[in-house]
Specification:
By secondary structure, this protein is mainly α. Helix content is about 90%, strand content about 0%. The protein contains five helices and no strands. It has helices at about 5-30, 30-55, 55-60, 65-90, 90-100. It is elongated. It starts with a helix and ends with a helix.
Length: about 100
């Protein structure tokens, strides 16, 4: 591949992440998204899951793995959002370079 092709690939990938970040920002401004995902899933469900880990009935029935998998799913979605923010939230002057 030539340097021009490499640069074009990088520009396309950068645009993808910037577009993803813009979409995520709009979602995070939405009150329903905040209630359902940020509060209901990331906070409430995570807190409830952590609380379940210490319950005797969960331990005795061997359901801790199931609870851990739910917590891992929450963590995975949060990590995806963090990846979008880290790769797509670039300074304004760099964003101008993408459009040039």
């Amino acid at each position: 591949m030539s340097n021009l092709e490499d640069q074009q690939i990088v520009e396309i990938e950068n645009r993808y992440w910037v577009d993803m970040w813009n979409s995520l920002e709009r979602l995070q401004d939405n009150k329903d998204f905040q209630r359902v995902v940020l509060d209901g899933y990331f906070k409430d469900r995570a807190i409830n899951g952590v609380s379940l880990l210490a319950q005797d009935s969960v331990v005795q029935s061997g359901r801790r793995t199931e609870v851990m998998e739910d917590l891992i799913a929450i963590s995975s979605l949060q990590d995806h959002f963090i990846t979008i923010e880290n790769l797509g939230n670039i300074p304004a002057e760099s964003e101008d370079d993408l459009e040039a």
